[in-house]
Amino acid sequence: MIANLFVFICDATLEDKETLDLLGRKFDLMILDGAFPECALGLVYRLGVPFMYINTVGFYTGTMSLAGNPVPYSTTPAFYRPLTDDMNFFERIYNTISTLFIDLLYIPTMVCLQHMVWRHLGSDIPIVWNLNRNVSFILQNGQASVTYPRPLLPNVAEIACIHCKPAAPLPKDLEDFIAGAGESGFIYVSMGSSVKAANMPDHLRKLLVQTFARLPYRVLWKYEASPALLTDLPANVKIGRWLPQQDILGHRKLRAFVTHGGLLSMFETVYHGVPVVTMPVFCDHDANAAKAVTDGYALQLDLETITSERLVRAIHKVIHDPKYRREAMRRQVLLKDQRSTPLETAIYWTEYVIRHNGAYHLQSPARNLNFLQYYCLDQVLFFLGVVYLLRALTRLYLNPRIIQLGKEKLH
Ligand SMILES: *[C@@H]1O[C@H](CO)[C@@H](O)[C@H](O)[C@H]1NC(C)=O
Question: Which UniProt keywords are listed (predicted)?
């Protein structure tokens, strides 16, 4: 279904007049999202310009791998699984199968996508999948303190928290609401922007409402509906269609963050040093949660088995067990201790690529090797072949019957 969605989106994009107008203009550089960029790579080829990726889904490593970065299955958790980089034997098997499964799913999608690109942009476009390998630079949404330490080629820079900023004062209505809680403070609940809280199943919504009513804190909840429609809202809860998340996360009276665990939310929570309760929904949420739990600043709840009791307990635990805030603040210090800010890093490398009209000298030839070549398996096969041949030849020549035969001929 997701595969069909990509093809559908590609069709709509390449049909769009505004997209096609771009082809008449001149650019120095194109910056694409590194998760599934293949449709746009057709445009990049037509324009004949260097391109970069911003890998927003930091745990998705497909385009990193195509650029030649090592992403061994033994230490690279599949982006959609609740695994970390430290896996036991069975987890590694699960991880390898999960990663291969996504790669397999990719094949039919890429075939459909390729035809879509040919239809819209002309049949001289090379295989878009392979165009991936020509990426000049990758801005990776990660950093060892919040994602994992990884071997990266010189044409990759990590820019986690590029958008993070110190908290500004809140609008008056929010500030008044929080002040009303006195010293007990408040918690912040948000399922992000790609999951619409207002679309959640009614039993889950009721469960959250009941839970919030039991808490001794005020609750600020990002919920995309008019308060008039929510008649059962307890007095300690305030909802908002769109809330200034970072200003809230940086607020002195915030006690905990209840989140779906989107990667940017996780980065922001570390940047502001706030403990979290995460309820993963889809995509990379499970992987993000696994990392946050390992780092000790998060508790994770499963939406399938969640109960009001469990949620209350988790919220109390991350607030009252000092370990959670301490670990969040420890990660915060590590995240901020960098030579330059992520934004400065990103600007430097973007301008670098423009200055040199691409960064082809930073590319690794590993990007053009297939799996067998990269791991020297073709050589192993070759040597095995040689050994086999030698053995067969030796057997032939040292065979007593043949030696006997040779001797007889000599006489
Ligand atoms: C990579 O892109 C540049 C700029 O469009 C182009 O000149 C070059 O031929 C491309 N290389 C490959 C191997 O496709």
Answer: Glycosyltransferase, Membrane, Transferase, Transmembrane, Transmembrane helix
- Which CATH number, 3.40.50.1820, 3.30.300.230, 3.40.50.2000, 1.10.3720.10, labels domain 172-336? 3.40.50.2000
What is the mean predicted confidence (pLDDT) over 40-62? 94
Q: What is the 3-class SS of 254-270, one letter each residue?
A: EEEEEECCCHHHHHHHH
pLDDT at 201: 86
Q: Which atom of ligand 1 is the closest one to the Cα of 45?
A: 5
- Choose which residue among 28, 360, 362, 367 to substitute to test ligand 1 binding: the one with the highest number of ligand atoms within 8 A of its C-beta: 360
Q: Is the CB of 182 under 6 A from ligand 1?
A: no
Of the pLDDT bands very low, low, confident and very high (cuts 50, 70, 90), residue 125 is: very high
pTM value? Answer: 0.90
pLDDT of residue 406: 65
Please give the number of the atom of ligand 1 that sits closest to the Cα of 48.
Answer: 5
Mutate to test the pocket of ligand 1, among 125, 128, 134 (most ligand atoms within 8 A of CB): 134
Tell how far the Cα of 46 is from the centroid of ligand 1, in angstroms: 11
CATH 3.40.50.2000 maps onto the chain at 172-336
In this structure, are residues 183 and 204 in contact, taking their beta carbons and an 8 Å threshold? no
Q: CB within 8 A of 324, min separation 6: which ones?
A: 275, 296, 297, 298, 299, 317, 318
Looking at the chain, the whole-number percentage of residues with pLDDT higher than 70 is 97
Q: Is 201 in the pocket of ligand 1 (CB under 6 A)?
A: no
How many residues comprise the chain?
A: 411
Ligand 1 neighbourhood includes 192 CB (under 6 angstroms): no
Lowest mean pLDDT, pick from 45-59, 229-243, 273-287: 229-243
